């Protein structure tokens, strides 16, 4: 018998394969806005991918869409979200039935929400949240309360919280950082293969932010879950992610390994974002090289959405929409792709790497 | 470093009882004095005291005193005014010569010793006895009406929020708004005229009063059944009077809670819909409405005076009108003080209940 952890097993394919996903919000009886356009990417087991981009570019929408957690007016009109289940089968999340979806959520893919200071029910104790979660996914004989409490305590210890104090507390008795840790512990409770984190540390002070990020990256080493990490903060992305995807106006406009993205950005927008990383990581500041704001979803320009703000724009950019195009593929199968009509040209000029 | 942050105490909780202004711990006697429940009780007592005084002076500000009123009626029988006044003065337990401050002082001392004195127009009857004979019927019908309306309203309002902008929601919203706009005595009239006389669903005459002839008060099925039967119309009126409001506020509250992060997170956690609806949505939506129960109750106590007249139900409504018409000051004062106390007590209970149910206030 070989140990599966040491044996380099044959690549079983991606854990998550997102293919041409559109996500829209109904805004009236007949009208809708498309917040995510034709997004495709693969995420392999154990990998972590950061999604970066300005506010409103559709990061949260994409994250929620992956688990079909969109608000009532949200819908996924096109695409496939293929997920390799724990039992080895592959399912399209879009076509799961209600009960199947319920069982899938949290046990296979969990999510830590943006600004989730409010993620806990204010009238329940933290222990009740663990209890509810375990109970909802129990199959067969219900486990004893004490048993669940013990396991919850263990999970809280993993995120460096004192279970004796936290389990019996109500959410309002915990600080923001403690709540966020508790939520991460809760997210890991059922051993999901995928953890989606939507700006998990944005509302926290820098010290707490650092502590949580460090612990998160240790836990990933330990538990080997895959991660989609949504953030404004390119510094955090660099630290936690193997790959980075840049989004702009609902589209994925560049993907690549973290190294590629940071050292050889091939889309002018990504390049501008990297220029704008503030010295101490914090909120995203609009850099001088990137004036103005992203276009409104209802009035996207016909060609490249970034054209109005792009200093390399030419006439063709206003006429043809660039598709995500693979620029090179590395030995391990990871590729670098960008959606810019002039990316090769600009790379040759060295313009995208100032 | 990580453990250090995690072990640091949470920010001080300002929602709980008895913080002193500068944050220093209070001496024990002050802590009791400023205890959440005690603060509420003190405020309630102040309200009752103020209302008692307002009642006292308003009552006496009405034109004429008990003797004028009775003499006026006697003269209609052909008696001369002087004669009528003498008879009235002799048959009523009222001394028109007593100075106002004296009457006020007697009233306040009476209140403090739970003695509301004798009625003026019903010689031999204390105010307390008179109230005790009628008030239970009023409280019973209003209480049952409130419980039914609140329960149904919460359920329907929640259903509306879950199906908002669908047909059910639109229909119920219209119904609720219409019901909320009709004054409750008008609802009572519509019930009697429509259901009783026009559609003949029931005999409005037989339904009058609080009990059928021959039925004795006691703790048995016949008595309870008959009491409910006679209280049916008032209860139904009260239900219709407030259910619309309850549907609408519950819909609003539920809609708000449905957009809370913790509900989305609960869905993400794969909890069953029923569990989310009850413990995550329902509980949080109802919590801010607990205090409204007392407000509904208060509204109905006010409305009952007219509703009971329309439906010929023998609660305090008729007694209060008599007290006003005959200027029976002690009865009027006693009734209003007792009714106010009931409403204030309901508010107090709602407040304390809320503080028990919401862990952010509870200590
Ligand atoms: N419920 C909704 N109804 C209609 N439009 C919505 C809704 N939620 C989001 N949007 C729109 O979809 C677009 C993408 O929003 P989203 O929240 O996904 O952006 P984001 O990248 O997560 O931004 P941020 O960094 O501020 O969190 C925005 O233009 C937003 O206005
Ligand atoms: S396609 Fe044109 S406008 Fe768009 S990013 Fe490339 S150069 Fe700029
Ligand atoms: Mg977001």
TrEMBL record, chain A:
GO CC terms: plasma membrane
Natural source organism: Nocardiopsis flavescens
InterPro entries for the chain: AAA+_ATPase (IPR003593), ABC_Ni/Peptide_Import (IPR050388), ABC_transporter-like_ATP-bd (IPR003439), ABC_transporter-like_CS (IPR017871), Oligopep_ABC_C (IPR013563), P-loop_NTPase (IPR027417)
Location(s), subcellular: Cell membrane
SMART domains: AAA
Membrane topology note: Peripheral membrane protein
Stated name of the protein: Peptide/nickel transport system ATP-binding protein
Any one GO molecular-function label of the UniProt entry: ATP binding
GO biological process, one term: peptide transport
Lineage summary: Bacteria, Bacillati, Actinomycetota, Actinomycetes, Streptosporangiales
Family to which the UniProt record says this protein belongs: Belongs to the ABC transporter superfamily.
SUPFAM superfamilies from the UniProt entry: P-loop containing nucleoside triphosphate hydrolases
A Pfam family recorded for this sequence: ABC_tran
UniProt-listed NCBIfam families: oligo_HPY
Keyword field: ATP-binding, Cell inner membrane, Cell membrane, Membrane, Nucleotide-binding, Translocase, Transport
Residues in ABC transporter domain copies: 18-274
Automatic annotation (TrEMBL), chain B:
UniProt-annotated location(s): Cell membrane; Membrane
UniProtKB keywords: Membrane, Transmembrane, Transmembrane helix, Transport
GO cellular component: plasma membrane
Family assignment from sequence similarity: Belongs to the binding-protein-dependent transport system permease family.
Pfam (any one): BPD_transp_1
Domain of life: Bacteria
Stretches the record annotates as Disordered: 1-23
Naturally occurring in which organism (per UniProt): Nocardiopsis flavescens
GO biological process: one example: transmembrane transport
InterPro entries found in the cross-reference section: MetI-like (IPR000515), MetI-like_sf (IPR035906)
Name of the featured protein: Peptide/nickel transport system permease protein
């Amino acid at each position: 018998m070989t140990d599966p952890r040491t044996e380099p097993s044959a690549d079983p394919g991606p854990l998550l394969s997102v293919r041409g996903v559109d996500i829209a919000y109904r805004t009236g009886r007949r009208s809708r806005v498309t917040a995510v356009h034709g997004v495709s990417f693969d995420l392999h087991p154990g990998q972590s991918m950061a999604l970066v981009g300005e506010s409103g570019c559709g990061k949260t929408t994409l994250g929620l869409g992956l688990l079909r957690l969109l608000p009532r007016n949200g819908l996924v009109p096109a695409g496939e979200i293929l997920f390799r289940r724990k039992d080895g089968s592959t399912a399209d999340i879009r076509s799961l039935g209600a009960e199947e979806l319920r069982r899938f959520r949290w046990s296979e893919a969990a999510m830590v929400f943006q600004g989730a200071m409010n993620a806990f029910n204010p009238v329940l104790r933290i222990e009740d949240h663990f209890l509810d979660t375990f109970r909802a996914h129990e199959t067969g004989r219900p486990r004893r309360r004490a048993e669940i409490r013990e396991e919850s305590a263990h999970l809280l210890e993993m995120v460096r919280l004192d279970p004796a104090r936290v389990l019996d507390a109500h959410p309002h008795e915990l600080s923001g950082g403690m709540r966020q840790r508790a939520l991460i512990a809760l997210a890991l409770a059922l051993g999901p293969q995928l953890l989606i984190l939507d700006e998990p540390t944005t509302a926290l002070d820098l010290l707490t932010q650092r502590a949580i990020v460090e612990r998160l990256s240790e836990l990933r080493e330990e538990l080997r879950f895959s991660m989609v990490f949504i953030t404004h903060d390119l510094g955090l992305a660099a630290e936690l992610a193997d790959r980075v995807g840049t989004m702009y106006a609902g589209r994925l406009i560049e993907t690549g390994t973290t190294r590629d993205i940071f050292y050889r950005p091939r889309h002018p927008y990504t390049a501008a974002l990297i220029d704008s990383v503030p010295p101490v990581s914090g909120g995203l500041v609009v850099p001088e090289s990137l004036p103005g704001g992203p276009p409104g979803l209802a009035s996207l320009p016909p060609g490249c959405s970034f054209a109005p703000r792009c200093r390399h724009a030419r006439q063709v950019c206003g006429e043809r929409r660039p598709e995500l195009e693979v620029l090179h593929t590395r030995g391990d199968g990871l590729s670098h792709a960008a959606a810019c009509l002039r990316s090769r040209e600009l790379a040759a000029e060295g313009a995208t790497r100032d | 470093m990580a453990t250090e942050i995690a072990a640091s105490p949470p920010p001080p909780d300002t929602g709980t009882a008895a913080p002193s202004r500068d944050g220093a711990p209070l001496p024990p006697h002050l802590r009791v004095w400023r205890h959440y429940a005690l603060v509420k009780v003190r405020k309630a007592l102040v309200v009752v005291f103020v209302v008692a005084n307002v009642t006292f002076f308003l009552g006496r500000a009405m034109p004429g005193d008990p003797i004028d009123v009775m003499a006026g009626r006697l003269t209609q029988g052909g008696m001369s005014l002087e004669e009528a006044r003498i008879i009235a003065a002799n048959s009523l337990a009222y001394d028109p010569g007593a100075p106002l401050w004296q009457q006020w002082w007697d009233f306040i001392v009476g209140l403090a010793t739970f003695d509301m004195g004798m009625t003026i127009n019903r010689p031999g009857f204390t105010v307390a006895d008179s109230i005790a004979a009628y008030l239970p019927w009023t409280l019973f019908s209003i209480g049952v009406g409130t419980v039914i309306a609140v329960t149904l309203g919460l359920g329907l309002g929640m259903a509306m929020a879950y199906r908002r902008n669908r047909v059910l929601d639109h229909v119920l919203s219209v119904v609720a708004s219409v019901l909320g706009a009709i004054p409750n005595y008008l609802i009572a009239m519509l019930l009697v005229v429509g259901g009783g006389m026009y559609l003949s669903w029931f005999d409005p005459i037989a339904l009058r009063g609080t009990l059928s002839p021959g039925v004795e008060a006691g703790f048995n099925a016949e008595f309870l059944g008959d009491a409910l039967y006679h209280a049916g119309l008032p209860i139904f009126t009260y239900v219709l009077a407030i259910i619309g409001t309850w549907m609408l506020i519950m819909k609003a509250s539920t809609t708000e809670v449905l957009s809370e992060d913790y509900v989305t997170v609960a869905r993400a956690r794969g909890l069953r819909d029923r569990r989310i609806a009850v413990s995550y949505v329902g509980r949080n939506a109802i919590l801010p409405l607990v205090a409204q129960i007392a407000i509904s109750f208060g509204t109905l106590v006010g409305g009952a005076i007219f509703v009971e007249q329309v439906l010929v139900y023998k609660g305090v409504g008729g007694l209060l009108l008599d007290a006003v018409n005959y200027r029976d000051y002690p009865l009027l004062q006693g009734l209003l003080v007792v009714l106010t106390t009931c409403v204030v007590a309901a508010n107090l209970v709602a407040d304390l209940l809320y503080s028990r149910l919401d862990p952010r206030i509870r200590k």
